[in-house]
Amino acid sequence: MSASLIVLSSIAAILAAGFLYQSLGSRRDRLRYTGAGRWVQIGHGQKLYVVEKGSGDPAVLFEAGIAATNLNWCHIQEEVARFTATASYDRCGLGWSSPCRSLRTPGNISVELHTMLETAGIKPPYILVGHSFGGLVMRRYASMYPEDVAGVVLVDPMRCEEWPPLNPEKQPMIERGKKLSAYAVPIARFGLARLAVTSLLCRSGRLSGHLANAGGIGGRHVLKRVTEEVGKMPREIWPIVAAHWSRPGYYTGMQRHVEAVPDTVSEMQCADPIRDIPILVLTPGKSTPLSGPCLAKIGNNVRQVIAEESAHWVHLDEPELVIESIHEMVVAATRETLQAMA
Description:
There is one protein chain. The protein is an alpha/beta fold. It has helices at residues 3-33, 74-80, 106-120, 133-144, 171-189, 192-202, 206-214, 216-230, 238-245, 248-259, 261-269, 292-298, 314-317, 319-341; strands at residues 38-43, 46-53, 59-63, 86-90, 126-131, 149-155, 279-284, 302-307. The chain has a domain at 37-169 and 277-341: Rossmann fold (3-Layer(aba) Sandwich), CATH 3.40.50. An eight-stranded mixed sheet has the order 1-2-4-3-5-6-7-8, with helices on both faces. Strand 5 (126-131), helix 4 (133-144) and strand 6 form a beta-alpha-beta unit. It is globular and about 85 Å long. 42% of the residues are buried.
């Protein structure tokens, strides 16, 4: 057997082993980590994975950031479920939900969320809680289905003026995100992503460190950001985060979200302000507060609170502030309902 044939055979064997490792790992992850929630049909063969906790009215709905899942709200949801019903979920293309079939804009996502809530029997009124991109989704939901919404909490919502087409200078960042996501798909398909994230979140981290160093400054920057952000989440969910980041579908879903940012910005620029629904905006102390005109574009009943100790991930930096803000909204909505019934 020639040397070249031996090399090709070895490469083929390694790829086959990696593919098998990834397939078996994905099957094991699904069996091990999905017991806390259920899948809800939303039509066209698609299902959303939703986690429900607590009881009472109004129900609090959580919407995560652009590439995040229900896990981002794990601690907050546990605490809020002590005083009312809660639901967090994975958008199509992310977590345990089906791949996405429509453009990942707040309007399309809101339609899917509304269908899921109706099918699952999660009754309004709702308190909507959204972080970053999820804040835009909750704004859009409230404008599309105002009769279902009792209040909105926006946790450092994504600022449209910072992104294309309003800020064309950020287009290279979007293109870079799309390319990195596309590159990651085959890496995940053959098990390398699973090796890296398992090393980072479930073991010593040495392998992920070597891979980051091989990626140069960019690789080390990504590793630092991931370590800092995931490090603020409960340690018991790190293996589930690793399971999500091991899947090729995660990177495909992330790419679909990132490439839709310009369409998202255009949609939200044309969206009407939310009328007569109380809205609380939590702005990080490390960011510039939203101006009066920006708040007025969100709605006509908006209050801004500065999270002095927080960066972008307010719900991870100051969870008590977020929980208290949600509690205030729940109490106010309950009081209004009782007054209407009197």
